[in-house]
# Entry
Amino acid sequence: MPSKTAPQRFYYKSDRLKPLRAFCQAARLGSVSRAAEALFLSQPAVTLQLQALERDLGTRLFERIGRRLSLTREGAALYELARPLVEGIDGLEGEFRSRLKGLQGGELHVAAGSSTILYLLPPLVQAFKAAHPEVQLVLHNVTGQDGLGLLRSDAVDLAVGSMLEVPSDLSYAPVYSFDPMLIMAKGHPLAAKNPLRLEDLSPHGLILPPKRLTTWRLVDLVFQQRRVPYTVALEVGGWEVIKQYVAMGLGISIVTGICLTDADRGKLDARNLREYFPPRSYGVVVRKGKFLSPQARAFADLVKPGVFERSDYFESGHSDR
# Structure
């Protein structure tokens, strides 16, 4: 009696990791040939794996736009699921060995802007190095898109800073909140004005950071929304420089309370502007789906209220949340 025909089985089902790895590389690089190079495989082999994966799932995962592959809606959904799985499997041995030896050695790369490195990170770095002296900590002083690029390329483990808009491929966990503060030279007429209205700032030139930075864009947005005119007396980078020029009487400025210290009390007056400007949050930024090393998790755990302790400067310019 003839035997029944066995159901068709694709060869790759015994090893789903291979086609999923090929899929993730093709999605990341936008090219089958570049995916093949990254995997040290031939282009036809990668193509067969992608075709078999599409047959098994019963849907198209890619569409070609010019010379570049682009994910379909279904492909994007699969990529969001598959990427952390593939990266988790590929990093399993290293993660296993790291867990066996804890935080013995290794490197930790953290991206942060100048203000974060100068004002927020010192006590966190001090606490981390005291607990894990064997870990080599590398701080990358970058801002904006440069920092996000390091995160996306896995050149850094995490970032610490402030974000107004969070891209869909990143996760942001805000921890600290700082009020916006108007700073001016000692004895400035705005220091004693009560109530202080946004319109009162119009006659005075502002000293602001470059337009490409978040602070300038936020200040401009608030003034535009309230239809209040303003002038920029000076555009300069770095809050320390801005504070020095304000103390010299060259203009006023709107800064985040994180940058105000006890040393500033003798040369600056400040007024809280939380009525007009939103507070700025600071926290940890990671790429979605990324498996954090034990070193990265230990550092992220330190970025929390209680480690960063400062007194309330200039009318409670700093508050934890």
About this structure: The chain has a mean pLDDT of 85. The chain has three domains: 11-90, 104-177+280-313, 180-272. The two ends are 75 Å apart (CA to CA).
